[in-house]
Amino acid sequence: MVDISRRTMLTTTAAGTAAALALRGASPAAAQAAPTPAEVHGHDPIPLKWLEGGAPAEVTGGTTWGVPWPRGAFAPGQEFTLTTEAGAQVPVQTWPIGYWPDGSVKWTAHAISGAEPRAETYRLGAGTAARPAAPVVVKTDGGQVTVDTGVVTVAFARSGEHVITSITRGGTVIAKDGRLVASRQDKPEEPGKSESFTSRISSVHVEQSGPVRAVVRVEGRHKKGRREWLPFTVRCYLYAGSDAVRVVHTFVYDGNENKDFINGLGVRFAVPMRGEPHDRHVRFAGEGDGVLAEAVRGITGLRRDPGQAVRQAQYQGKATPDPATWDQRVTTRLHWIPAWGDYRLSQLTAHGFEIHKRTGPGHSWIRVDGGRRASGLAYVGGPTGGLAFGMRNFWQLHPTELEITGAATGEAQATVWMWSPRAGAMDLRFYHDGLGQDTYPEQLDALEITYEDYEPGFGTPYGVARTTELTFWALGGTPSSERFAQLAAANATPPLLTSPPQHNHAAGVFGSWSPVDRSVPAKAALEDKLDLMHKYHREQVDQRSWYGFWDYGDIMHSYDGDRHVWRYDVGGYAWDNSELSTDLWLWYHYLRTGDAKAFRFAEAMTRHTSEVDMYHLGKWRGLGTRHGILHWADSAKQVRISNAGYKRFYYFLTADERIGDVMHDLIDSDRTFLVLDPGRKINGGEPFDPDPKALGVGQTTDWGSLAMAWLAEWERGGDPIARTKLVNGATTIAALPNGWVQAGVTYNLADGRFNPMTEKSVSIGSLSSVFGLIEVMTELIGLIDDQAVKAKWLEFCRLYNATKAEQKEVTGADWGNLNLRQAYSRATAYAARQLGDQALAERAWQELRTGHAGYPDNHPFGARRVEGPAVLNPVDEADLSTNASAQFGLAAFQCLALVGEHI
């Protein structure tokens, strides 16, 4: 087995390294690499609204979003102006993040600060951008990077353990010594050897420097002594006029799952404490608008009353009057009142949190209160300033914790625990002993019963990752309970501006889809089914409690009607792991509807599948893992799961740099075919001696997944090898005698070409095009002017659901008993649209309605309620499976868009 460094791909062209650096920051440098369009036509201003509607009371520093534009509308250097519905200009920062082949802008990213007055709706159009009154200022010297938002100054260390050395507001240090903390133990359950690690910085890069938004990327590892592990990337986002620092934290697990059991993972700041203990405040957000408001040394509820004004000031988080003005029976006895310096809110499950406090180490913890689902925000400080700190998806990503220690001393410690030390150790070991599956024949036989593809040593978590979003506010004083609740809401659901489905569709992005259309009864009936299906799967997340650090964002694959549960414990029927393009279905549903719940559902899945379900380190870097009981358990490691096409939507709609990194890392994932033989079990385990000039890369499932990564890189103006391989692959497949169904093809790694063949032969499977091939070809044909590619692809689309006689006439052999014919109705619809063939259009609708391997026209989409004692908790169940739902949804969306008039 050849062990190839995944980074070697970028040495194939000198431009690759420069492009990689430009893409990481989504900076204007990327625009300079794109060709200048011959002419641009402009575009009328478009409306924007907040995803959840209304005008948010708070945002997490600011907001960044993406907008698509039709081909030829704007050149890369175009400026944009943003105005409220009342006509007021809002300072906006703009940069291109996607290009059409002619060099015109396909996607622009925009950022505004939360410090600006917020409106319910805006208009975005060409024009001179307004600048903020106090633009973000970034300075770099040999030892640190500083970012001044006009309200706070944040200093980043370029080395050492402190990611952020200080956050200063008005000359007052609000927080300092910000670092990452982690701990491990060498046994999963019994007390054993335990070690604590802290961040060690290896690099700091300024990815954007204003005027509205600055982005600083910090990379490093956790270190203790000579050991360095758990590599991390931390991006910090700061906006003009804002006192918030938004943090996107990613770590990769690179330990030994049998020896390295993480029992704590967090981000910690030191918070200087000023004033007397009775003027120091602690706040925790509960569920909804709930807030726990306490002081380190309480002066309410005492036997003696200091006075109403004193009590109210403390409760409201204001400075108390001079103690000389209090009832002296209280003033002279303040030293007898305990100071509660340590607090923690622990959310160890999705269904309950507890708050405890103590006076200090060596003393008992006292239960304060509890609740169901905390919003994930805490505060420690006083009337002269303090730190609010929180984590998004706090209860969904349990076990989590917000901890305050030392608040009664001169310096408190504020920690966001992404994995709470109170939860026990993170156990990532495989869940069984192999069951005697020592040979390939035994493993193939076991696959026939549990649908799990097992192989010793393949169920490893080495190289999987997790990304978490956090926010830190450097406040000038203790916030009111109302303001704190608003901060908590913004932390839990960061507001996002969006363009309407009608504009996104008119821009011509993401292939064949159309906004919801209920203009005729037949369309309305189909839209109702699509809504019911989506709602059912979305609500199953909460009903089945699909939450947790490694699980949140994914959904289950198949249902067990006897037990009334999803098959969470049955081999390959458990977690979905993007099987049959669930991600695509959810994103297209959002594009069509503009629905906030649909966006958040798809967003959570993208965060999960792009991190947990694929490898970011090691020999399988760039590969994803097929569906199973553990996300990384199955031995089928495949590019169809790591598919960049599942991530493009989120990147272009939000300009999220982390997702951009993941997509960029996939442009050389064809090199994994040098490392792992996908057919090793079928060919009997013959010695694997891959030839880089003749690799066994399939031109359907494999190439379609690779093509999505290359398309995304080409769109973003990145490494030119991506466009080269994308076009070479499509043109050489089209030159094969039977194109996408030609048997025995081989692939040249150097340039992405498939080697020529002269004799017709057929090899085709039902999974060939259900991992994004149909979608990427729809887009690619619209981007390149190659009639041979178009003709060969239309031949494939027309023939998949054709008769065997028709298939044999064209390709020399019939295609066998193919499955998933409902899913391929969208291929028929595409051919019908391109060829102007009404008979094909009618055939497409008949294929969709017949529902082969999916949902026929009379299929019930409604759910039935099941209650105890048949189930543990009341649940809804329906005759729906995730594979069938994803493919039915995609087929229906595209039939409506392509041949909707023939419904």
TrEMBL record:
Keyword Cell membrane applies: no
Comp. bias intervals (Polar residues): 195-205
Leader sequence segment: 1-33
Spans annotated as Disordered: 182-205
Domain of life per record: Bacteria
Keywords associated with the record: Signal
Biased composition (Basic and acidic residues): 182-193
Domain PcRGLX/YetA-like C-terminal alpha/alpha toroid: 494-902
Ranges for domain PcRGLX/YetA-like central beta-sandwich: 136-488
Ranges of residues in domain PcRGLX/YetA-like N-terminal RIFT barrel: 46-125
Classification via InterPro entries: PcRGLX/YetA-like, PcRGLX/YetA_2nd, PcRGLX/YetA_3rd, PcRGLX_1st, TAT_signal
Name of the protein in question: Tat pathway signal sequence domain protein
